[in-house]
Amino acid sequence: MKMYGVVGAGGFGREVAPLVRRSLALGPAGDHAGMCFVVEGDAGDDPVNGVVVMKMDAFVNLSVERRFNVAIGNSQVRERIVQRLITDGCSPFSIVAENVVIMDGNQIGEGVILSPFTTITSNARIGKYFHANIYSYIAHDCIIGDYVTFAPGVKCNGNVNIDDHAYIGTGAVIKQGAPNKPLIIGRGATIGMGAVVTKDVPAYATVVGNPARLMERKA
After folding, report:
1. In this structure, how many other beta carbons lie within 10 angstroms of the beta carbon of residue 158?
2. Is 71:20 a contact under the CB 8 Å cutoff?
3. pTM listed for this prediction
4. pLDDT, tens digit, for every residue of 35-56?
5. b vs e for 69-103, b when ≥16 Cβ sit within 10 Å of the residue's Cβ?
6. CA dist., res. 65 & res. 124, Å (int)
7. C-alpha to C-alpha distances, 37 to 1, 33, 69, 83, nearest whole angstrom
8. Phi, psi (deg, nearest 5) at residue 135
């Protein structure tokens, strides 16, 4: 027997739970055998959308095989939880909606979430624990790091490199780079909602607007 835990019972966790049920044929909402929400705080007594909620300690101490995915937007929290669960002997699984389009030659890391209507074209390399929210797009020859987050409707054109822990806001558009000079978004950078990125973004910088301009840079 296996127990599939979706860490986080907030908005994103509730959005992806039906994808888990469908992909694993776990039955309709209300029949939560085989899956649960996992939370670090108080689990409460009531199911959420028909799925039982379990505290982290209870989940890691189950006597069955424990599989997990972390549906939490904050990438630093996501990494911390992943490290704890792996240390406790749990193993990740990916969540991929039925209507996701994945074309040829792609490499996709473990523990990703690919929400409905996501498209990945050709020869992209995508790291671990990546989140692509609904209607996101990744074109050819992109390199996406670990713990990167795409909010809904991100358009990432070809030959773009995005480093670990970057956050790309809703509706952002990233201009295509070149094979010998990819457009680079640095580690921990934040791209604001609706931004149009036409040039490299430094690590830990926040850019907004069309064309995107520097708003701030963390130390």
Report:
1. 21
2. no
3. 0.93
4. 999 999 887 889 999 899 999 9
5. bbbbbebeebbebbeebeeeebebbbbbbeebebe
6. 31
7. 17, 12, 10, 18
8. 65, 25
User: Are the CB atoms for 35 and 21 separated by under 8 Å?
Assistant: yes
SS3 string, 27-52, reads CCCCCCCCEEEEECCCCCCCCECCEC
pLDDT at 31: 47
Q: Are strands 35-39 and 95-96 parallel, antiparallel or unpaired?
A: unpaired
Encoded tokens for 55? 């505290």
C-alpha to C-alpha distance for 195 and 209, rounded to whole angstroms: 5
Other C-beta atoms within 10 Å of 203: how many?
16
Phi, psi dihedrals of residue 149, rounded to the nearest 5°:
-125, 125
The DSSP 8-state label assigned to residue 127 in this structure reads -
For residue 183, give the 3-state DSSP assignment.
Answer: strand
Cα 25 to Cα 39: distance, rounded to the nearest angstrom: 23
If phi over 0 gives left and psi between -120 and 50 gives alpha, with beta otherwise, what is residue 86?
Answer: alpha
Active site residue 131: no
Rounded mean pLDDT of 49-66?
94
